[in-house]
Amino acid sequence: MAWEYSEKTKQLFMDAVHGKPGTHLGEIENPDGFGEHGSIACGDSMRFTFRVRRHPTDPTKDVITEARYLTFGCTSAIASSEALCTLIEQGGYTPIQALSITNEDIVKFLDGLPQQKIHCSVMGAEALESAVFNWAQKRGVDLESLGVRIHADEEKEGRIVCKCFGLSEPYLRRKIEELNLRTIPEITGATKAGGACMACHHAPGGLQDLLNEVWGASGTRLRVVPKVERQPPPEPAPSPPALSPYQYAKRIEKTIDEIVRPMLAHDGGDVEIIDIKDNLVFCRLEGACAGCASAGQTLKLMVEKTLKDLVDERIRVVQV
Prior knowledge:
The chain is an alpha+beta fold. 39% of the residues lie in helices and 16% in strands.
């Protein structure tokens, strides 16, 4: 079924894809900071750029005045990116101060995210860090001397633990500690590691071994922290009523008309629904998208991802 997003998350997503003034979907030309995180191959990728008002004598006092992003992600990835840009611009942060924004701040701004979508907020925070590293190089700022540790090359270094998403041991070990991840599902929700073939779950040197090394084989934290009283889990929300075949098809058509078509129209393209059979949606790209070499990617990364996210995660789009 569709993910349960907050009204704020859905509104930010809708505003962004429709290009509403004040939103941040796009890219800054000749930016002062440029960073990327994720992989197009795995379906979640983000490019983050920002511009600063330069201080005449002290680059550490540069202030970010504009932030933009491009992402191949889903509803939560776009909304998380919007939240990040808004927090930065409204806060009047320097690039170094912007690093204090965490994925928890992004989730709070959105009034929550489904647990399986937390990795989208992590992706934004990581892309920001990469962009700040780029700004520091351009401005000659020695981040290490300021006590700022940047992990810009972390995913390219060290042993690869999750081969499906190309995630390295140093990166996963850091996120386990930073986000207090205690189980394999929590790691997958925050980073996507282990979310595809699952071979890295219990392989030697895999996710469970990393958890044991960080927290101890018994799951006990290896460092002393204040004891926090554990709260009982919330009651699960009732399942929404099943849609009839007619309602199901109409929801697909509504999502295509209101979300997908406006995104394709920016590039002179369009999409036509040929047929809907159970969870299969048969589509044909039109206009500028019809003969594009990336038509297959467009159907998977834009059309199918949007329908999975807003209608039913079981949907598969078939190109006609």
